[in-house]
Specification:
Layout lengths: L4 E9 L5 E7 L2 E6 L6 H14 L11 H17 L22 H13 L4 H16 L3 E6 L2 E4 L3 E5 L8 H45 L18 E2 L4 H10 L4 E4 L4 H5 L10 H11 L3 E4 L6 E4 L4 E7 L1 H9 L11 E4 L15 H14 L5 E3 L2 E3 L1 E4 L2 H18 L4 H27 L13 H25 L12 H11 L4 E3 H5 L11 H13 L3 E5 L4 E5 L68 E5 L1
Parallel strand pairs: 4-15, 6-11, 6-12, 7-8, 8-11
Antiparallel strand pairs: 1-2, 1-19, 2-3, 4-5, 9-10, 13-14, 16-18, 17-18
Helix pairs in contact: 1-2, 3-4, 3-10, 4-5, 4-12, 11-12, 11-13, 11-14, 12-13, 14-16
């Protein structure tokens, strides 16, 4: 065996006292997890996971499980005596989910659902958003300009340990869909029974026809009806392809545990990662084809869309990172939430029947949406933006692009997908409001300023959440090049898109960062900083003052506010000038941006690197 050191490194300590432990052999990282190292059961779980990954750790070997447990106890004792480690990162508490952005019916369902199960709102919010998108399916797309559309397809994962009440959103989503799914199963069973009877009659008729030989046409064989469904749990490509062919509205992979999904990808897949690459097709609703192994039949699906929702444990997600599965972009497409751990406790709160029925009606209404028919084929109805909404989205795209290039590869990939997610959120918000009876929203568009603002704010909240989760699972932030005034840039962008000025009251009702009285200090600090840097000034009025941008004619990110939003302003990668496609009738491009319709080279992300020796506590064990 090579003479190398097995090193246990405390990389960071979370606010709940979980330690992120990185195990490396020589210069190679072999394992990481974030246990509560002061608990015996957590140390045992960590040691078992390490031994499974590195079989050289065994009873009677040079390094035994007892050795690992002893070192973990030393680390726990050392940190306890110090009160807290001064040379590790204590990550900040997560921002609360922006529940006020949700349509009223959805908002009440999320809040009452979380209270009735005594769980963090994040555990409910993300799965419900994905469920709304899945019910819309491939019937609708949103388009900020010609040649750029985004589907109603969302992937999300709740990152939490077992026993942390993380499955509440999964349960509530199942409850919303179980009735319609049960009815579909029953209808399919009855259809199959009729098919079997028709097949029996056909055999008799065919036998009679063969006897007569009178030159007449043979009897027509019966064809079984497809199985209409939305929810699936089988994750093999062939099974999903068959169901997609029978269900052109798309499917919903709703599972309590996403480990099986990730284990079937990349290095875990016998296909050598091809499954992972082909699953990315489902994120954009692109055409998909597969050859069945049994009868060599080729299955082709023109709009293959699959939304995904489930839960995953932090250690499993960390493995996705350490095994290099960030590079394909699979993780970048997955919205992540990571609630602070909390003990399960009793609550007398219950969801009201009015709230449950209102949400059920909304879900049922979304499932009535249909494709339009073009040349005899189903096509997604494309919703455009109002002029005001488009102008707001243009400023967001330009400002978001500046933020994207300041991140390392992994976070930059997530940031780039969140640009398109702003559109997807806006589409879901608009149609959820339509389904709940909002007279200002139409099922065929256009999408207005309220929905695009909600989409932008949700995108930014999930961006911050991704940054927090990535840091916990071992993806370095790479913040050296990130500007410290990101929030000032966003405030200036918001002011520019609202005429170049606003009162403090108007700002407090604008960007999510400043909403509610508890965020008044942030508002005061950011406004003062914007003035101090010479980017804005206070203008006194009769009753109140207004914050005015010094140069409101230019957003500071390359977009001129005086430019007509109907011009050919580039807000996505370059596209041909002669593209002329009318919304709601054309064959929609099947990706968030033009360039995504062409295969991109994989974006490489470096494996997590242990911090310098002077920033962490190391334990060396000779092998």
């Amino acid at each position: 065996m090579n003479d190398q050191n097995l090193k246990l490194t405390v990389e960071s300590i979370a606010s709940d006292r979980r330690h992120t432990i990185v195990v490396s052999l020589g210069d190679k990282e072999i394992y990481r997890d974030d246990p509560y190292i002061d608990r015996a059961d957590e140390r045992h779980r960590f040691t078992e996971g390490l031994a499974a990954k590195f079989p050289a750790i065994a009873c009677g070997a040079a390094v035994s499980p007892d050795d690992i447990n002893a070192k973990l106890m030393e680390l726990a004792a050392g940190n306890a005596s110090a009160g807290k480690a001064t040379n590790v990162n204590i990550d900040s508490k997560a921002e609360p989910f922006p529940i006020d952005l949700m349509p009223p019916v959805v908002r009440r369902y999320m809040v009452e659902g979380a209270k009735s199960r005594a769980t963090d709102l994040r555990n409910v919010a993300l799965p419900i958003i994905v469920t709304l998108a899945a019910c819309i399916g491939t019937t609708r797309r949103i388009s900020p300009k010609k040649g750029w559309t985004a589907p109603s397809i969302i992937w999300g994962a709740v990152v939490a340990r077992s026993g942390s009440v993380k499955s509440v959103g999964y349960d509530l989503s199942c409850e919303l869909l179980e009735k319609s799914e049960a009815e579909s199963i029953q209808a399919h069973s009855e259809s199959l029974e009729k098919f079997y009877q028709d097949e029996l009659q056909h055999r008799k008729a065919l036998s009679q026809w063969n006897k007569l030989k009178d030159g007449s046409d043979p009897p027509v064989a019966p064809v079984p009806s497809p199985a209409a469904r939305l929810v699936v749990d089988d994750q093999t490509l062939e099974s999903v392809a068959v169901l997609l062919a029978e269900n052109p509205r798309g499917l919903y992979l709703l599972t309590d545990e996403l480990r099986g999904f990730f284990d079937g990808m990349g290095l875990y897949s016998s296909s050598g990662g091809r499954d992972e690459a082909r699953w990315l097709t489902f994120f954009d609703g692109r055409p998909f084809s597969v050859d069945r192994k049994t009868n060599r039949e080729r299955i082709y699906v023109p709009m293959a869309g699959v939304s995904i929702s489930g839960t995953i444990q932090p250690g499993t997600l960390a493995k996705v990172v350490s095994e290099g599965q960030v590079e394909s972009g699979l993780l970048a497409r997955m919205l992540l939430v990571m609630p602070e751990p909390q003990a399960k406790k009793w609550t007398d709160d219950e969801m009201s029947e009015i709230t449950r029925l209102a949400m059920q009606r909304l879900i049922d209404e979304l499932r009535t949406l249909e494709h339009e028919t073009v040349d005899g084929h189903p096509r997604a109805v494309v919703l455009t933006l109002t002029d005001e909404a488009k102008a707001r989205f243009i400023r967001f795209v330009n400002a978001h692009g500046v933020e994207t290039i300041q991140h390392n590869d992994a976070l930059a990939a997530a940031w780039s997908k969140l640009e398109g997610y702003a559109l997807r959120f806006a589409l879901v918000d608009h149609l959820a409001r339509w389904a709940s009876g909002d007279p200002n929203c139409d099922a065929n568009g256009p999408v207005g300023i309220q929905s695009i603002e909600a989409g932008i704010e949700l995108s930014r909240w999930f961006a911050n959440e991704a940054e927090r989760v990535y840091s916990r699972i071992g993806v370095k932030k790479g913040t050296d090049g990130i500007k410290p005034d990101r929030h000032l840039d966003r405030l200036a962008e918001w002011l520019a898109s609202h005429g170049g000025s606003a009162t403090e009251r108007e700002i407090s009702r604008g960007p999510q960062r400043y909403r509610s009285k508890t965020n008044q200090e942030r508002l005061n600090e950011d406004c003062a900083a914007l003035v101090a840097t010479g980017r804005a000034t206070w203008e006194a009025g009769r009753k109140t003052r207004r914050l005015v941008l010094i140069d409101a004619g230019d957003s500071g990110d390359g977009d001129i506010s005086g430019q007509s939003v109907t011009d050919s302003t580039e807000v996505s990668p370059d596209e041909p000038e002669d593209v002329a496609i009318e919304p709601a009738t054309h064959i929609a491009p099947i990706c968030d941006t033009i360039d995504e319709s062409v295969e991109k080279p994989a974006q490489l992300s470096p494996s997590p690197v242990s911090p310098p020796d002077d920033q962490v506590e190391r334990v060396k064990v000779r092998i």
